[in-house]
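Complex 394.
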Amino acid sequence: MDGMTPDLTGEAFRQQARDWLRAHVPPGFLADQPGHAPPGLAQCIAWEAAMHRAGLAGITWPRAYGGHGRTLREHLIANQEIGRLALPESVSSISKELAGPIILAIGTEEQKRRFLPPILEMREIWCQGFSEPEAGSDLAGLRTRARRDGAGWRVTGQKIWTSGAAKSQRCLLLARTGPVEDRHKGLALFAVPMDSPGIRVVPIMQIDGQDHFAEVFFDDVRVAPEDALGAPDEGWTAALRVLSIERATNRMYRAWRFENELRHLVAACRQDAALAPLLEDASYRQRIATTVMEIEMVKGHVEPVVRSLVAGEAIGARGSLMKLHWSEAHQRFASLALELLSQASPGAAPFVQAAQRRFQGLYLKSRAETIYAGTTEIQLGIIADRVLQLPRGK
Ligand SMILES: Cc1cc2nc3c(=O)[nH]c(=O)nc-3n(C[C@H](O)[C@H](O)[C@H](O)COP(=O)(O)OP(=O)(O)OC[C@H]3O[C@@H](n4cnc5c(N)ncnc54)[C@H](O)[C@@H]3O)c2cc1C
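Predicted structure with flavin-adenine dinucleotide bound:
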């Protein structure tokens, strides 16, 4: 099949998405199935391109830019179906969920036609060059400088923690066009080709032994005028918009994937002689029940966000509630999973060993969940200031 049937809505759309996924997920992709083998980059790219052709990526983007022109409600339905399966995380979520939406919002017609189709067809992966060694939570302190060079720009500076930099073809770069003292004024957003002369990517080894993120150095990098996104002074507003998307709508499948993980954990415990009795232990039962409630609460954040977006309202600070709740609950769950599975019988069955491998990886990754897209403390500050409008202490 090439694309979902155009006039399908609601449950019929869900059924078609579910059927397509069941029929087309490549062997070994699902982390809760026997024979799971983590796919490499090329396999993930091929899979995500196939999902797009099937109508399961770029769901709400206009057809003129390679999208499927459907509703946000259908995007949510597809995400629920994607989340229900233990699929690998997208290797291009920054492109599809952060760069794409911001290009749609502030890009020129020419930029939309040039940048968006390659993202959906998986010909171009983007990374997000916001954080710097001295500017993470305090993003307005960033120092990477963009100075005028004829009609274009020259960029010099350093980014850090840039996820996927080594595999990316473009960087959504936030750089300073004015003095550092101007803070959030005089910042601009650029779409910089990663093979530009003067860019150096230095991978950083993570706690799980992978090097998915990197330091990125810009040494007098020439940026063409047509690769500036929005007006030179629009960078801060655009960056806030990117962050709000990142916190509220990025990976909308999260709650459903979380549910899949919990099911997998309980199924693995049931199959092991040492773990099965732990499911009867009062304190573990309580922690599992709490996880179920937390999953329902994370789901509960999704609907109001979708409703607001459908009504054309900004999500703003409410994205912080979603980000805070999901990351904290998921981190607690990952600790619980590791604690349980570490008590499995020696020589546990392959299904239990597969769960151990999945949840060890998940545990290590979960340590970063309360940091990226804005730390827990930053989300609490935003909720205090902007949602609750509490007075600031002296
Ligand atoms: C896995 C991972 C992937 C990432 N990917 C990207 C990416 O692709 N692109 C990108 O640009 N960035 C990325 N980041 C960076 C991420 O956005 C920053 O790490 C994050 O914003 C925190 O900034 P920082 O590391 O500089 O810590 P800091 O800002 O130095 O914070 C250090 C500590 O101080 C606390 N703190 C800071 N300010 C306050 C305050 N005002 N009130 C209370 N407490 C405060 C923080 O909560 C934290 O505990 C990634 C990070 C991780 C871990």
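The beta strands are 126-129, 145-149, 152-163, 170-176, 187-193, 199-204, 213-223, 228-229.
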